[in-house]
Amino acid sequence: MLKNGASLTAAKVYPVASISLKVILFFFIIWAANLSYGFVHEAAHALVVKTLGGQVYELYINPFGTDAHTTHSYVTGTASILLLELAGMAMTTMLAFFTLLSDYAPLPLFVALRTAIYALNYSPGTDIYAMQQVLGSGSGLLSILIVVINMTCAAIAIAALIKNASIREPVLKRFLHF
User: Fold this and answer.
1) Strands 56-61 and 68-72
2) How far apart are CA 172 and CA 95, in angstroms?
3) What is the C-alpha to C-alpha distance for residues 103 and 160, in angstroms, rounded to an integer?
4) For a surface tag, which of 36, 64, 95, 118 has the fewest beta carbons within 10 Å of its beta carbon?
5) What is the 3-class SS of the chain, one letter each residue?
């Protein structure tokens, strides 16, 4: 019996080890998602280079997944450059949508938010910066489109989390049951 008269079987007991394991597992999943995100993004660039007949020399992703790049032969032509630069964000946008089919809502939320943030990064060396060099102000419309699609995926994941985080069914299915 506990102090207030309740039995031990009626009380919810969360062992510290169980909570610690869940926290470690959450961070491991986010780390793996970060690495996977960088790999999928750069692999899309590499695939386009190979499709255009170019050479891929290096696909680099740092151990945290926060920095990645693909070293490849030079690509010529406005359409080819645009396709090459758009490939990475298009692939991660599709990844955000397809991870909505998983039963782990933080995953599509993470992928969608990371892609939306990246689509707004006009720093030299980024895909959006390269697209801006090719398209000029038209790259802003592409940024907005990518952000809207990814924020829609993020909103669906958040709505599914709010609805019931304990349901083990795909995030998209949970969202559609509103």
Assistant:
1) antiparallel
2) 13
3) 10
4) 64
5) CCCCCCCCCCCCCCCHHHHHHHHHHHHHHHHHHHHHHHHHHHHHHHHHHHHCCCCEEEEEECCCCCCEEEEECCCCCHHHHHHHHHHHHHHHHHHHHHHHHCCCCHHHHHHHHHHHHHHCCCCCCCHHHHHHHHHCCHHHHHHHHHHHHHHHHHHHHHHHHHHHCCCCCCHHHHHHCC
Within its chain, how far is the Cα of 170 from the centroid?
Answer: 17
Asked if 172 and 100 touch (Cβ cutoff 8 Å), the reply is yes
Radius of gyration of the chain (CA): 21
**Position 101: which residue type?**
L
Q: Convert the pLDDT of each residue in 7-56 to its tens digit.
A: 555 445 556 667 788 889 888 988 998 999 999 999 999 999 999 999 99
Alpha-carbon gap, residue 86 to 8, rounded angstroms = 58
Looking at residue 136, its amino acid is: G
pLDDT of residue 92: 95
Question: Would you call 23 exposed, middle or buried from its count of C-beta atoms within 10 A (0-12, 13-18, 19+)?
Answer: exposed
Tens digit of each residue's pLDDT (9 = 90 or more) over 98-127: 988 887 788 899 999 999 999 999 999 899
